[in-house]
Write a structure and sequence with these properties.
Blueprint lengths: L2 H18 L3 H8 L3 H8 L7 H11 L10
C-alpha cells in the first residue's frame, strides 16, 4: 500500500473518530489493539491488516466506504 493511501486512510479514521467524540484509547480498546499501534495507523505510519481495519471500522461505527477511497 502506498504511503499516500495509508495516510489517507489514517486521516479518514481520525476524522471519523473525532466526529464520534472518541479517544484513540477508546477506539484501540474496542478494536483490540494498542493505543500506540492505533495512533501510528492514524498518522499513516503503519498499514493496518484487513482484519485490524475491519475491527477499527466497527469500533468507530462507520462503513468501510467512509474510510476507503476505492
Amino acid at each position: 500500500m502506498s504511503s499516500k493511501l495509508s495516510s489517507y486512510i489514517g486521516r479518514q479514521l481520525q476524522l471519523a473518530r473525532q466526529k464520534k467524540g472518541l479517544t484513540q484509547a477508546e477506539v484501540a480498546g474496542h478494536a483490540g489493539t494498542t493505543v500506540n499501534h492505533y495512533a501510528k495507523i492514524e498518522r499513516g505510519e503503519v498499514v493496518p491488516s484487513l482484519k485490524t481495519l475491519e475491527k477499527i471500522v466497527k469500533a468507530l461505527g462507520v462503513k468501510s466506504s467512509d474510510v476507503l477511497s476505492f
